[in-house]
Amino acid sequence: MGKRIVLKRQLLPQSKLATIIMVATFTTLSCLTIKKPAWTEKTPVNQGYYIGIGSAAKTPGGTDHIAQARDIALEQIAASISVHITSQTTSQQLEQSGIRLETFQSKITSMVKTDLVGYEFVESWENNTEYWVYYRLSKELYQMLVEQRKMASVMLATQYQSLGKKAVLDEDIASAISYYFYAAKEIWPHRGFMSSLASQSPLALDAQIISELRQILSSIIIRKQELTEINDPTANPNIKAAIGVFFPTSTGEKIPVKNIPLEMVVTSGFSRFSPLVPTNASGISFITASNNRTPIGSEIKVRPSLMALAGFENETPAGPEIIDFFQNPYSVIRIQSVPQRVAVIAREENLGGRRENSVVAGKLKEFLSVNNWRVLNDAAQADYLLYISVGTVQGIVREGIHTAFASGDVWMVDNSTQEEILRTNLQRISGAGLGFEDAGMDALAKFAGHAISSLGL
Question: pTM score, two decimals?
């Protein structure tokens, strides 16, 4: 039926070599007479051990079945550990640690699989078609190993937490955030099943660190500073605005946050902004733009760069997860600019006939004027040139209503560099009227509306 192998940790004298050979030969010859062990039918129960049983079909001439069966057995052990840890964790612990039960269970299973150590091989059995293996892990040994790892993390996290608190008292907020992120990195693998180490705090250590870091981040104030308020000796013409970062103290005073890295996203406008540099000693970071393309200004969103503050981009696999957990909303900053000069150059045809009074150009000029552009007739004096090339074709007549379709391109060029900065291509914008010419005019008017939306002017 099969052969059964039981490994024991002992050395045999060399004098028994012949006996070993005889036993091995006997085992091979009698493999069809050894019964399948009971543990292959029903997983043993042992209060002192986590048990894992795995099996795999054998492939002729291959050995992959050994690794497959072992992996299944170890996964069974990991699953048993995960169930035990989850059962020992209260919903209050999870809530304080900011982790959902489903996320916690998945995290525990993944962590246990990755860090599973201390297991031992007990027995294997095989026949011509299948292979079985029996592993076990001492609960006492595993708990001791887990506690050793956790205590090492707790010691480091506690030290970083203390450094973070001291940095807040010293009004060094950027350093405080970094220290708290180092603490968060240490407690992250154990989040949800840590105990309170301080009798004066009802929170577990992971919940303490999470709560304190969130409080610091949510208290940071980011706002636009008027350039006239800042005594800066430099006269950089590319400086468009200044951002101030502040933190409220226990007395209500707002202190500047120095050396904090910032990140920004441009949400409207077409200016070329330089990356933000960390704040100076006054908590100020200047916004510079080499080319301001938007006459009504730009809108940017700014927030502290937590990835830079945490300092573990390439060091911690869980780094992005930790950053996302603590990420703050952006603060919106608007940057005004002086009106820009634009000339509109149009080529418009309706049903093949050239139009001197362009419908599309007229509507675009009206829109630009309302939105703070200076529309010029002299292209040589303009900062930007807006080109329009559009034409219509007739459609059909249905119940006395004629249709037409407008198609074409609208694009904008920087007049000083001749660089194309905007373009849209619109096809078969439909219009309707009592005649084909009226339908074409309607299609051109609608084309202008689509162009404005597409260009984002």
Answer: 0.59
